[in-house]
Amino acid sequence: MAPWPELENAQPDPNKYMEGDTSQQSATPGKGKDTSQNDSGTPVTKIELLPSYSTVALIEEPTAVEDPWDLPELRDTGIKWSERDTKGKILCVFQGIGKFILLLAFLYFFVCSLDVLSSAFQLVGGKVAGQFFSNNSIMSNPVAGLVIGVLVTVLVQSSSTSSSIIVSMVASSLLTVRAAIPIIMGANIGTSVTNTIVALMQAGDRSEFRRAFAGATVHDFFNWLSVLVLLPLEAATHYLEILTNLVVETFNFKNGEDAPALLKVITDPFTKLIIQLDKKVINQIAMNDEAAKNKSLIKIWCETFTNVTQMNVTVPSPENCTSPSLCWSDGSYTWTIKNVTYKENIAKCQHIFVNSSLPDVAVGIILLLASLLVLCGCLIMIVKLLGSVLRGQVAVVIKKTLNTDFPFPFAWLTGYLAILVGAGMTFIVQSSSVFTSAMTPLIGIGVITIERAYPLTLGSNIGTTTTAILAALASPGNTLRSSLQIALCHFFFNISGILLWYPIPFTRLPIRLAKGLGNISAEYRWFAIFYLIFFFFLTPLAVFGLSLAGWPVLVGVGAPIILVILLVVVLRFLQSRYPRILPRKLQSWDFLPLWMHSLKPWDELIFLLTGCCQTRCCFCCRVCCRACCLLCGCPACCRCSGCCRILEEEQDTPIKAPKAFDNMAMSTEAQDGVPRSQVDGPDTEVTSSSTAL
């Protein structure tokens, strides 16, 4: 509805009078008339001309549909710098410095909570992950290897840990490079689950959640689509194995230094006070070491001394001696000299669980809950601080810097520069999960667009592989070749994916798929949790279970499902592009039951199941609920959201209407008890938004 013209502080204008003879007007002056005399003494009535109102304003105008993916304007609602006095300017500077320090502090604890979260997942599922690798009978199946890589990386929350296990198995000849490549692809998928979990923390605001979840899942779709194309290609041609073997043989690599752990230097002093793990136990379980299955992952002794001494030992026969010169017999026993390694514990670790008698799973659950709580709190505060800092001109400058392309004809280079920036930042922080998780809230509040976040994420994928290459160059001589070839496989896999899904704008399917999933998740927020559980837990577990039954069972169950999915995709494409070539019944999904082509029935079911969480609270606690909503933006499942909706429904939007339409509106009073007519002027009234035309 078009707004009424403003009549605020309306005053009579002497130029808006029309003179007329009193003979033609009524003798009694009415409202809006002023009687005076002209030069000849004849009484003249001055009639005030009221503003005219077009009837076009009464017609419902079509409103422009807003694009939900447009970046919001972060307006500066505070006092302008030029309007502040000296004291206000000094206070503003100190506030800015304080906010910056707080932002760095919360970012530090955010990164530390991610590290503790990874340790918690390893405590809960590390031994299970090692047992996945110990089953060598199904490793020759590429699909099984793929889902094992996904499951292990999700369980330990670290692609570096799963990659190091694979390198150890290849170096020990328990696994071939050909069988390890699908596992590396699965590890690439599993590492993207961290920023998806971080995006769930922004579910309080629908628009922020739409952008944040799309920005997080663009990484998922890139990895899934790359595997969908490159895994069958690798199984048919083995191009990654051949290419990496050629690179390793061509260049004479020597042992080098490990990658600089810049971020670990900052976070380790704090995280090592919480928990320290002995990651060798997972490797030993993967190597089928039975003794390691009873060991704890919690590190007890941080400083040990290993001493190698020569001792006289008995052997069954002279053939078991180390050498003929070091072998003798005293009649009943045969003796020889052997080197015996003796390990002495010197100093215990200083973390809080060093003397705990709790099992690994219990400690892992405690750390999991605590790290998720800290992660959520830090993320909320980071978003709030960024929202208060990135306002006005600062927001404009940052948005233009991050989202503006180079001038023509070099605009196409901007994305490739973003890939290099993402790779460099990931190399600095030594973790793609940390970089993409820190970028997720920036996407949510509207600082970075999805189109710009996509190449940054691709660069992050490359950055984490360069770190693995440098780590491989620092490996011992016996594992140098295998670890380097595995790291190069990871590198060339990501390069191949970028060549598939980035250079041509038409092929950037991950952006469109992520936006579609973002729209669905913003409408039905429970679908985000369903997506996370289904694609990263249930589907890999189901495929792994079918792989244990053998190839015939996997193909017999998987082939019909894949055919149905392909049929749905083709039919959906024809419905959107060429509906006329389809029969009338197939031009839409209405021939199916509603629950098969719409999420609305499922949403109603979930609403019924979680209805107890959405009970509206009493009037006396609405003030507290309102404060909660303003601080953190309560999700729909929170009790406070009901109070917020009640308050929003009770607030009416003031619409000013002239008295000419007094019979078409109902007057209301202001919330503070003062009638609107006394505030807005004598010729205006305020109507409720629900009763105006």
Automatic annotation (TrEMBL):
One of its GO terms (molecular function) is sodium:phosphate symporter activity. Its main location: membrane. Pfam families: Na_Pi_cotrans. It is a multi-pass membrane protein. Keywords: Cell membrane, Disulfide bond, Glycoprotein, Ion transport, Membrane, Sodium, Sodium transport, Symport, Transmembrane, Transmembrane helix, Transport. It comes from the Eukaryota. It catalyses: 3 Na(+)(out) + phosphate(out) = 3 Na(+)(in) + phosphate(in). It is found in: Apical cell membrane. Residues 1-44, 670-693 are annotated as: Disordered. The keyword Secreted does not apply. The keyword Lipoprotein does not apply. GO terms for biological process: intracellular phosphate ion homeostasis; sodium-dependent phosphate transport. GO terms for cellular component: apical plasma membrane; brush border; vesicle. InterPro entries: Na/Pi_transpt. The chain crosses the membrane at residues 90-111, 138-156, 361-387, 408-429, 484-504, 524-547, 553-574. Belongs to the SLC34A transporter family. Involved in actively transporting phosphate into cells via Na(+) cotransport. This is Sodium-dependent phosphate transport protein 2B. It comes from Panthera pardus (Leopard).
